[in-house]
Specification:
Number of strands: 10
Strand content: 15-25%
Structural class: alpha/beta
CATH architecture of the largest domain: 3-Layer(aba) Sandwich
Largest sheet: 6 strands, parallel
Distance between the termini: 47 Å
Number of helices: 11
Length: about 250
């Protein structure tokens, strides 16, 4: 299968899950990917990139590492790109194998749990924020948008390359929390104010943008916490709330 056909196919979640590959689009994002340890299958380049000095340097770096580069026309490139104004380059990379085993046994732990968070921009921002604030991993429960969705990857600004983000069933998460003696706290506007101190090991869940926490997560949470906000404002954006709580609840 050609790189162009593969890139088109990877617009679908089922294809990403089947092939364990994802697409990175844009000059800066591909530059960051090339500096990361992730395995890169190939690059797709359009004339817009090939004719620029920065693009020439990027392609030379890729070829220098033995990465396949396919040069295609503008129309063909747009058929694979997902941005409205493509920058002329996208890369296909292997999704790294990440799981709870990567964070098991740590004396201090911060897991950020996404409970059916559906907006790709929110999820990408959350992953970027989690990486910046030192969270050990971001775990996506069922109902959450695919963390390897192209818009999620763009919004995360390279955080996927350094921060473990992976999908999990509720049963897998529950088993890990029990075996590692990690309490689950959940964020909800009706909860108690977030305390000034927190346990060394903690999983923090944030819920769906509209309906909030799922019954499973709400019932399992040892504490429901909230952020005091003005009565004139109904709620905070989920990505903003997650960032503030991660900062407040650092070990």
């Amino acid at each position: 299968m050609s790189l162009l056909t593969t890139a088109r196919d990877l617009r679908r979640r089922k294809a990403r899950e089947r092939d364990a590959r994802f697409v990175v689009e844009g000059v800066r994002a591909v530059e960051d990917l090339l500096r990361s340890p992730l395995e890169i299958a190939g690059l797709l380049a359009a004339p817009k990139l090939i004719d620029s000095p920065r693009g020439t340097a990027l392609l030379a770096a890729a070829r220098g590492r033995g990465i396949e580069v396919a040069e295609v026309g503008e129309k063909e490139f747009r058929s694979a790109a997902e941005t409205e104004s493509p920058q002329g380059v996208l890369a296909i990379a292997r999704i790294p194998s990440r799981s709870f085993a990567d964070v098991a046994g740590r004396a201090t732990l911060r897991l950020l749990v996404l409970d059916a968070v559906q907006d790709p921009g929110n999820v990408g921002t959350i992953i970027r924020t989690a990486a910046a604030l030192g969270a050990d991993a971001t775990v996506a429960l069922p109902g959450t948008v695919d963390v390897w969705n192209a818009k999620v990857v763009r919004s995360a600004m390279g955080a996927h390359f350094v921060h473990p983000a992976f999908a999990s069933s509720w049963e897998e998460l529950e088993a890990f929390l029990a075996s590692s003696a990690t309490p689950l706290w959940a964020a909800d506007r009706g909860g108690e104010p977030a305390p000034s101190s927190s346990p060394p090991r903690l999983a923090l869940a944030v819920g769906n943008e509209g309906s909030g926490l799922s019954p499973h997560v709400r019932a399992a949470a040892a504490r429901i916490v909230s952020l005091p906000i003005s009565a004139a404002v109904e709620s905070l954006n989920v990505a903003v709330a997650a960032g503030i709580l991660l900062h407040e609840l650092r070990p």
